[in-house]
Amino acid sequence: MSGEAGRSEKGVVSMKTLLKGGTVVTESGPKRANVLVDGEKIAGVGRLLSGGERTVDVSGCLLFPGFIDAHTHFDLDVAGTTTADNFETGSRAALRGGTTTVIDFACPNKGESLQHGLDLWHAKAGGHTWCDYGFHMTIDDWNDSIRAELPNMFAAGISSFKMYLTYPAMMIGDRDIYLALKRLKALGGIAGFHCENAGVIDGMIAERKAAGELGVCSHPRTRPQYLEAEAVARLLRIAQAADCPVIIVHLTNHEALEEVRRARARGQTVYVETCPQYLLLDENRYFSEDYSQAARYVCAPPLRNRAEQKFLWEGLKKGEIQTISTDHCSFTLAQKDMGREDFTKIPGGLPGVETRGELIYSAGVAQHRINLTTMGKVLSENPARLYGLYPRKGTLRPGSDADIVVYDPGASHVIRAADCVANVDYNPYEGFVTCGGIRQVWLRGRLAVENGRVLGTPEGQYMVRGKSAL
Ligand code: DUC
Ligand code: ZN
Asked: pLDDT value at position 168?
């Protein structure tokens, strides 16, 4: 790399950089093109494009728009403990994995205002987040004051919300979901839903406890996929009543997807997210004799039967599933130890923000389950559109932020926790051999990661998001 700095109109020192010789993953397919970056923005994309004070040779590499992870939980209190990754460590891991924007869930406690939750999340993230970031707002209560706060949330750049059909601390009833959705519809907002049947799960847990079956293998057995499908079906009927589009987050299985198809067939707008853990891992992980080996995979919904993975990949290929996010919610093995005597005390969640891009390329594109265009859509373009960031994010075109993942398809490495920067002492994909690897990550025109090294300081900016437009 070589070059000299120039001065932009605003007097800010900027340098034009040409990323030369790569293949750009565009919305209509991969195209050989050079990318000219000017300051924080993309200035041009084209085959014959030249110029720039410095040239970076990216021949043989794929250039993706920076990945967006629309489902992270950093610095969240769960089950009497706090996630191992805060915004500092989590966003650093995200950036290393090609994710240039995360959307985390601001989470006021029941009885607190949305504004309180938002202030708290700004305090957690501000000044030490490595990638750009936004927040969804959790609605875990519905009353006149929360209703009255919603316009302020939009003004603060929050256009998407989250509701839970499970977890007593956060779940919200059918009436409140219905009323909240009607209000969101009027305001042009959208909501994602965690769909599992809380009541029946509670009953099943009580049965297991009474039988003394307190091991990790009771976790998947008390959260079967048909209870996820039931909750998806119920939520979609409530959405039908409210006439409001909705997002099903972390969908894991074909029975739940079938309910989405039914709703779409009757004319509803439904978006679906899945996660790498449901595409690559399966429930056998819970049946290890070694507590620690099993407990590290506890998340909700749980990992499913291996046969489900095929349905999810097909759903992605057909465009039935629009996004892959991680639900990154990391706990150390010591934290996972909290459930040695009782599986319900294991804090639920997996790390994933650092490995998503390489896993989806390796298990998806390289195995011909999805193509490059679909990978670009589900990791970047679709979340940008769905969550009101497009075209600033989610595309490599003139005027967009110069968030670029330079992916070398010829590289390969073994995923090891010891090599990762997330603040957690295991990796769910330990030993996985990647096809290809991330060579560079550019964040708003700045080289932020090179060959696994995160460069510079935390310069992530809060993203004021517009309305959903997928
Ligand atoms: N599932 C988890 O496993 N952890 C955090 C939240 C969630 O939905
Ligand atoms: Zn989550």
From this structure: 87
